[in-house]
Amino acid sequence: MTFISTAGIGMVLGITLFVGKTANAQYISAYDKNGSVRSAGDKAAEEARNRQNRQNTYTPVERNTNRRQTYVAPELTLEEKREVRLQEERLAKSRLDKEAVLKKAAGSKYDFVDNREEAGLRAVRVYGLWGFIDKSGTEVIPAMYQERLSFMDGMAAAKQNGNWGYINENNLTVVPFAYDEVSRWFTDGLARVRVGAKLGFIDKTGKVVIEIKFEDIDIAFLEGLADVKLNGKWGFIDKTGKVVIPIKYDKTSYFREGLAPVKLKEKWGGIDKTGKLVIPFRYDKEFSFYDREVAKVCLGNKFGYINRLGKEIIPPLYDAVDYFNSKNETVSVMLNGESILFDINGKNLTKPSAGNTGAKNQAKPPAASPVKPVTASSVTLADNHNYTTREVFHEGFAVVSIKNKYGYINQTGKEVIPLQYEYASSFKEGFAGVVIEKKCGFIDKTGKIVVPAIYEKSGFHFAEGWAEVMLNGKWGFVNARGKVLTTFEYEEVISFVDGLAAVKLNGKWGYIDKAGNIAIPIKYDRTVVFKEGLSSVRMGNKRGYINTKGEEIIPVIYDDVYSFENGKVRVILDNQSFYFDKTGKKLNQ
Fold first, then answer.
1. Sheet holding 457-458: strands in order across?
2. pLDDT at 18 over 70
3. Cβ-based neighbour number of residue 346 at 10 Å
4. What is the rounded average pLDDT of the residues 189-201?
């Protein structure tokens, strides 16, 4: 049973607010999630659902120490209740006012008019079918398509009578409605299409460029190549459909800076664009370098890090490894309950405790600090429990578990937050993500629920005051008071760095600020978090760098870009290398 509370939260429109431990006080919104006035039938249906919820709501009784305790957020004060309601009504009224103006301009014939413009047009919907109107309300594209249209370069994927094709801005069919599935947009002049269970690519005239025969295929070409599946095996093709790397692997991943992970005979390795094996088939899990020069690898049940040449800078001898800290380029690893700190070059920055002699074949790393770190296994356990999991301490707390129930101990070994969660993350910025009955929420260091466990997925950590969470299949952000930053509309999000968060909408990436406004246009095919005020971006198969203002410090025209090192970065254009500094100045070397 899931308890939903309004403790400090302005919930998304259209979601009923349950107030108090017994959910007796309820508020039925007069508006739906689009800001439209609800019909009497809709409100009656919701009231019926709420009556059923009240019948099914369980009121916690005195705690039974032999059972898992269920926590419910405390009841709101009258002032907080009024603020929650006013906040929702203000938001609904704002949307309703915009909607009324748009509907009036459109002659009130539509049941939905988008308040956002796309190339001077607004999407409209009537009886479940989509079209576009201009600013005067004139119907430019009739509402006749089964899915919402989104134009790029004058073309949009459209669905009619269950089949997909493409139209132009004059509503002329440019690619026949003959496909079961198509890409939303063309990338480098190509779009992936599906007929039955087979996939291929067409150009903007509808000509089949790559035969529709593959069982699986990447949606776009990265670094000029796409991984494809045929007869149960994987390989790579170029944009003409030519197989350039044999279709022989059990699994593949995409190319990044000239290197792609591939799997053969249950082991993972890495190849270059010629198919040459660069990283031996040695590892048990897929690895990825992302925007760094190192990748986390797994051998058996041990972990470590390799660089792009396949060198094991941190041998896979450790019980667990964290991700590298983006600010100081360090990573914490665990061995026999002890925490050891490494830099990105594999240098040991922490002296292990005297009792930790390491794994059998582990080389003795140089000691840089005489300070012994505090770990969950180096403390005296006051409660004398034999925990299944004991992790590194963060902000004075460590996650522990017994039989898949998670809780927290402090640095004296005392169990301070009971083992009651299905999952629990480490504390960051004073809060930790937890899972209760398959839903995600957040607690503070007293164990109080500050963000109700109502979300389907979560990043489990706050960054710059906001945490990414998923609701109804879409991502958004919430703060530690439960306030929602934006509507839940994004396909993917990346946590805030330098005041900006990367978001993905309609297959494209951009950035929003902490007010929820779009700070950098959502137009890129790939982006990463900002580092020292810069982020690499990709449009099609071209790459460059932008700053936090969205300015292209290094134009997005290059075939490849690398990470900054010592204040400069290497870029590739037509197989020639060039170098730039962080201001975008071209260097002579």
1. 457-458, 467-471, 474-478
2. no
3. 18
4. 93
